[in-house]
Amino acid sequence: MNRHLSPDEFSRWMLGDHAPESLRHVEECAECRAELAKLDSTLLAFRGSVRAWSGSLEPSGRFVNY
Prior knowledge:
It is a single chain. The protein is mainly α. It is 65% helix and 0% strand. The longest helix has 26 residues.
C-alpha cells in the first residue's frame, strides 16, 4: 500500500476492522499511526465527557441541581 489510509479505512480501523494491507501500512507509516493515535485520544476524551455529563443526570434524565 503506497497511499495513506482513506477516511473510510480509518473509520473501519477504529471499529476494529484491521485489514491485512491496512495493518501492514500502519506498521510502516508513522503519519497514519499518529493520526490513529489522535483519533483514539479524541474518542477517549469524548467518552469521558459523556460519562461525566451522564453522571450529572438524575435517573429521570433531568440535571441534578447542585
